[in-house]
Structures are given as C-alpha cells and as structure tokens.
Amino acid sequence: MADSSRADFWEQRYREGVTPWEGGQLPPRARAFFAAQRPLRVLMPGCGSAADLPPLLAMGHDVLAVDFSEAAIELAARQWPEAAGRLLLADFFQLQMPAFDCLFERAFLCALPVGMRSQYAERVAALIAPGGALAGVFFVADTERGPPFGMQAEALRELLSPWFELEEDLALDESVAVFRNRERWMVWRRRGFDLGQVSEHESTGNCGAHRKE
Q1: 170 pairs with which residues across the strands?
Q2: 191 with 176: CB under 8 angstroms?
C-alpha cells in the first residue's frame, strides 16, 4: 500500500500532475481572518504549489511555506517566482524553528496517515507560540480510505483540545471537488503554556533542508 507519509508518494503525484487537491484559492473566510490580523509570522506546512502564499504576503504577513516534495517546491517556485525565497524544502516533523504566531492548515492533516495524527498535533503545538493560532481548512468527514483522510468533528476536537481551544468553526463556502461540502474553516487558539520552543538564535538550519532561492 502506498504510504502518504513518504516524500516519494507526493513526488510521483506532482511529477505526473495528479494533484486534485490543488487549484483552490484562499477561501474568503481565511482572507477575512488574515486581513484582520496584525502582521504575523505564519507557517504553511505541506504547502504544495503554495497558492495561498502570495495573498498572505500581500497582506503583510511573514510567511514560510514548507513541503518535503521537491517537485511541489519546484512547482511553487515556478508559479510564484517573486515568493521563491519564502519556500522551504523540508520535513515539517523535523523543523526546529522559533514558534510562529500562526500555522495555516490547508490539506495537510488530511494528507497524513491516520497513525500520524497525534504526532501532527504535538508538532503543531510546539511550533505555535502560546496565544497563537492554528487557523485553516479542515476536512471533516468520515472516510475510511485516503488521502485525503477525513476526521469526524469530535475526533478532531479530541486530538487538538489538549493544546488548543476552538475559537471559530464555520462551513467553508468554496472548495475544490475532492473536498466538496466537507471542509470547515476553524481557528484553534493555542493554550497559554510553554512547550520549550526554541528561541530565535537557536533556530538556524537545524531541519536538514534548504530554502528554494
């Protein structure tokens, strides 16, 4: 069985152009949320072609888009050459960086095998500063096969509630066909305890990856 936790799983799909999850624009609910914020340090894990990157940068946010598929990062750099310096080829689960103000979730959690969900929650919590936000689009569905792997709302709440409090939960108005009518816009506020996040001076280059210049 193909393993979506491996880079080569996604590498093959991006090389062959089999990417039905791509093509969506920054949803209006996300646009409204980020437009209302002060400039934030934002992490975009599993960014793929990074279509959400340019509008977030245009709002003044300091965004780092990460993917461990070289083909995905190459595609993003071709599409958004002006933002190529904001792309990082790296494994999200190996990132060692200062905590971000916000992590933007978009088709990343649902791309991971079910057995990696607790690892996702722990790593996300470690990469968001206390009081920061996990904001994004979540695939809320009861699906046995994937990716995308859906989650029921109660299971998602159980996964994230040790570290986050749900602040906003709204239906998503626009979506690509593979997720149609089964995505929700959510904002989860990081609870106020410290997980020993690294400081700015400790953060450089420890993720075994490189920026795409």
Answers
A1: 185
A2: no
